[in-house]
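Chain A, query sequence.
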Amino acid sequence: MFLTILMFILSYLLGSLMPGFWIGKLFYHKDIRDEGSGNIGTTNSFRVLGTVAGIITLSLDLLKGTAAGMLPLLFHSNINPMIVGIAAIIGHTFSIWIKFKGGKAVATSAGVLLAYNPHFFFLAIFVFIVLLLITSMVSVSSMVSFSFAVIASLFYHDIILTIVATCLTIFVFYRHRSNIKRIKDGTESTVPFGIYYSIRKKQNK
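Chain A, predicted structure.
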Protein backbone atom coordinates (compact mmCIF):
# COMPACT_ATOMS: atom_id res chain seq x y z
CA MET A 1 0.00 0.00 0.00
CA PHE A 2 2.79 2.43 0.92
CA LEU A 3 4.50 1.81 -2.42
CA THR A 4 1.29 2.48 -4.33
CA ILE A 5 0.70 5.74 -2.46
CA LEU A 6 4.32 6.77 -3.07
CA MET A 7 3.96 6.14 -6.82
CA PHE A 8 0.78 8.18 -6.95
CA ILE A 9 2.45 11.08 -5.12
CA LEU A 10 5.50 10.98 -7.40
CA SER A 11 3.26 10.73 -10.46
CA TYR A 12 1.26 13.76 -9.33
CA LEU A 13 4.42 15.78 -8.69
CA LEU A 14 5.79 14.85 -12.12
CA GLY A 15 2.54 15.92 -13.74
CA SER A 16 2.55 19.17 -11.77
CA LEU A 17 5.78 20.30 -13.42
CA MET A 18 4.85 23.08 -15.84
CA PRO A 19 7.54 23.53 -18.53
CA GLY A 20 5.49 26.00 -20.59
CA PHE A 21 5.01 28.27 -17.59
CA TRP A 22 8.62 28.10 -16.41
CA ILE A 23 10.18 28.43 -19.87
CA GLY A 24 8.08 31.54 -20.45
CA LYS A 25 9.08 33.03 -17.10
CA LEU A 26 12.80 32.19 -17.18
CA PHE A 27 13.74 32.69 -20.83
CA TYR A 28 11.09 34.99 -22.29
CA HIS A 29 10.02 36.94 -19.20
CA LYS A 30 6.41 36.24 -20.06
CA ASP A 31 3.57 34.63 -18.17
CA ILE A 32 1.74 32.65 -20.85
CA ARG A 33 -1.32 32.60 -18.60
CA ASP A 34 -1.73 36.29 -19.44
CA GLU A 35 -1.29 35.95 -23.21
CA GLY A 36 -2.87 34.06 -26.09
CA SER A 37 -5.49 31.63 -24.85
CA GLY A 38 -4.12 31.81 -21.30
CA ASN A 39 -3.43 28.07 -21.31
CA ILE A 40 -0.04 26.85 -20.09
CA GLY A 41 0.21 23.90 -22.45
CA THR A 42 1.85 23.21 -25.77
CA THR A 43 -0.47 25.08 -28.12
CA ASN A 44 -0.28 28.37 -26.26
CA SER A 45 3.48 27.95 -25.82
CA PHE A 46 3.80 27.76 -29.61
CA ARG A 47 1.50 30.75 -29.98
CA VAL A 48 3.12 33.02 -27.36
CA LEU A 49 6.73 31.84 -27.05
CA GLY A 50 7.47 30.48 -30.52
CA THR A 51 8.35 27.22 -32.21
CA VAL A 52 11.43 26.28 -30.16
CA ALA A 53 9.71 26.84 -26.82
CA GLY A 54 6.62 25.06 -28.09
CA ILE A 55 8.56 21.96 -29.14
CA ILE A 56 10.40 21.86 -25.81
CA THR A 57 7.13 22.24 -23.91
CA LEU A 58 5.48 19.49 -25.94
CA SER A 59 8.45 17.16 -25.40
CA LEU A 60 8.61 17.75 -21.65
CA ASP A 61 4.83 17.45 -21.15
CA LEU A 62 4.93 14.18 -23.06
CA LEU A 63 8.02 12.98 -21.17
CA LYS A 64 6.58 13.62 -17.73
CA GLY A 65 3.54 11.51 -18.61
CA THR A 66 5.80 8.73 -19.83
CA ALA A 67 7.99 8.97 -16.72
CA ALA A 68 4.90 8.71 -14.53
CA GLY A 69 3.70 5.67 -16.47
CA MET A 70 7.11 4.02 -16.00
CA LEU A 71 7.03 4.28 -12.19
CA PRO A 72 5.54 0.78 -11.68
CA LEU A 73 8.41 -0.66 -13.71
CA LEU A 74 10.93 1.36 -11.71
CA PHE A 75 9.49 0.18 -8.40
CA HIS A 76 8.87 -3.39 -9.62
CA SER A 77 5.14 -3.04 -9.00
CA ASN A 78 2.33 -4.91 -10.73
CA ILE A 79 -0.03 -1.93 -10.69
CA ASN A 80 -1.23 -0.86 -14.14
CA PRO A 81 0.83 2.09 -15.52
CA MET A 82 -2.35 3.76 -16.82
CA ILE A 83 -3.74 3.95 -13.30
CA VAL A 84 -0.56 5.47 -11.87
CA GLY A 85 -0.41 7.85 -14.84
CA ILE A 86 -3.81 9.28 -13.96
CA ALA A 87 -2.15 11.07 -11.05
CA ALA A 88 0.21 12.82 -13.49
CA ILE A 89 -2.74 13.93 -15.60
CA ILE A 90 -4.41 15.32 -12.48
CA GLY A 91 -1.14 17.02 -11.57
CA HIS A 92 -0.91 18.70 -14.97
CA THR A 93 -4.50 19.92 -14.70
CA PHE A 94 -4.29 21.02 -11.06
CA SER A 95 -0.65 21.85 -10.47
CA ILE A 96 0.46 22.44 -6.90
CA TRP A 97 3.05 24.93 -8.20
CA ILE A 98 0.57 27.37 -9.76
CA LYS A 99 -2.29 27.39 -7.26
CA PHE A 100 -3.85 24.16 -8.52
CA LYS A 101 -4.47 25.44 -12.01
CA GLY A 102 -3.07 23.90 -15.16
CA GLY A 103 -3.46 22.77 -18.74
CA LYS A 104 -5.70 20.39 -20.65
CA ALA A 105 -3.35 17.41 -20.23
CA VAL A 106 -3.46 16.19 -23.84
CA ALA A 107 0.31 15.75 -24.21
CA THR A 108 0.70 14.34 -20.69
CA SER A 109 -2.07 11.81 -21.33
CA ALA A 110 -0.34 10.80 -24.55
CA GLY A 111 2.88 10.33 -22.60
CA VAL A 112 1.18 7.95 -20.17
CA LEU A 113 -0.20 6.02 -23.13
CA LEU A 114 3.30 5.78 -24.61
CA ALA A 115 4.56 4.15 -21.42
CA TYR A 116 1.68 1.69 -21.38
CA ASN A 117 1.26 0.74 -25.02
CA PRO A 118 3.68 2.30 -27.58
CA HIS A 119 1.88 0.71 -30.55
CA PHE A 120 -1.45 2.20 -29.49
CA PHE A 121 0.26 5.54 -28.81
CA PHE A 122 1.69 5.81 -32.34
CA LEU A 123 -1.68 4.86 -33.81
CA ALA A 124 -3.38 7.66 -31.86
CA ILE A 125 -0.64 10.15 -32.81
CA PHE A 126 -1.04 9.24 -36.48
CA VAL A 127 -4.76 9.99 -36.28
CA PHE A 128 -4.02 13.26 -34.46
CA ILE A 129 -1.53 14.42 -37.13
CA VAL A 130 -3.87 13.54 -40.00
CA LEU A 131 -6.72 15.44 -38.35
CA LEU A 132 -4.46 18.42 -37.64
CA LEU A 133 -3.41 18.57 -41.29
CA ILE A 134 -7.07 18.58 -42.27
CA THR A 135 -8.69 20.80 -39.63
CA SER A 136 -5.71 23.02 -38.68
CA MET A 137 -7.12 22.99 -35.13
CA VAL A 138 -5.35 21.33 -32.22
CA SER A 139 -8.55 21.26 -30.18
CA VAL A 140 -10.53 19.33 -32.80
CA SER A 141 -7.63 16.97 -33.43
CA SER A 142 -7.25 16.29 -29.71
CA MET A 143 -10.93 15.59 -29.04
CA VAL A 144 -11.45 13.40 -32.10
CA SER A 145 -8.18 11.50 -31.47
CA PHE A 146 -9.22 10.65 -27.93
CA SER A 147 -12.63 9.53 -29.19
CA PHE A 148 -10.88 7.34 -31.73
CA ALA A 149 -8.70 5.93 -28.95
CA VAL A 150 -11.78 4.74 -27.07
CA ILE A 151 -13.13 2.94 -30.13
CA ALA A 152 -9.73 1.47 -31.04
CA SER A 153 -9.15 0.28 -27.47
CA LEU A 154 -12.11 -2.09 -27.82
CA PHE A 155 -10.11 -4.10 -30.34
CA TYR A 156 -7.26 -4.54 -27.86
CA HIS A 157 -9.50 -6.39 -25.38
CA ASP A 158 -7.89 -4.42 -22.57
CA ILE A 159 -10.56 -3.31 -20.12
CA ILE A 160 -8.21 -0.97 -18.21
CA LEU A 161 -7.17 0.76 -21.44
CA THR A 162 -10.80 1.17 -22.50
CA ILE A 163 -11.95 2.51 -19.13
CA VAL A 164 -9.06 4.97 -18.80
CA ALA A 165 -9.36 6.07 -22.45
CA THR A 166 -13.09 6.70 -21.96
CA CYS A 167 -12.52 8.71 -18.77
CA LEU A 168 -9.76 10.75 -20.41
CA THR A 169 -11.94 11.45 -23.45
CA ILE A 170 -14.74 12.77 -21.26
CA PHE A 171 -12.20 14.84 -19.34
CA VAL A 172 -10.61 16.24 -22.53
CA PHE A 173 -14.02 17.27 -23.89
CA TYR A 174 -14.81 18.95 -20.57
CA ARG A 175 -11.52 20.86 -20.57
CA HIS A 176 -12.15 21.93 -24.18
CA ARG A 177 -15.66 23.26 -23.59
CA SER A 178 -14.59 26.84 -24.35
CA ASN A 179 -12.91 25.60 -27.54
CA ILE A 180 -16.11 23.83 -28.55
CA LYS A 181 -17.99 27.11 -28.24
CA ARG A 182 -15.39 28.90 -30.39
CA ILE A 183 -15.54 26.10 -32.97
CA LYS A 184 -19.30 26.56 -33.22
CA ASP A 185 -18.84 30.33 -33.54
CA GLY A 186 -16.10 29.91 -36.16
CA THR A 187 -13.55 31.77 -34.02
CA GLU A 188 -11.32 28.90 -32.90
CA SER A 189 -7.59 29.49 -33.29
CA THR A 190 -5.78 27.53 -36.00
CA VAL A 191 -2.20 26.49 -36.58
CA PRO A 192 -0.48 28.15 -39.59
CA PHE A 193 -0.77 25.09 -41.82
CA GLY A 194 -3.26 22.50 -42.96
CA ILE A 195 -6.20 22.37 -45.37
CA TYR A 196 -8.62 24.46 -43.30
CA TYR A 197 -5.97 27.14 -42.68
CA SER A 198 -5.22 27.34 -46.41
CA ILE A 199 -8.91 27.68 -47.27
CA ARG A 200 -9.46 30.45 -44.74
CA LYS A 201 -6.33 32.25 -45.93
CA LYS A 202 -7.59 32.24 -49.52
CA GLN A 203 -11.02 33.44 -48.46
CA ASN A 204 -9.54 36.36 -46.53
CA LYS A 205 -7.50 37.61 -49.49
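The chain has two domains: 1-104, 117-196. The chain has a mean pLDDT of 91.
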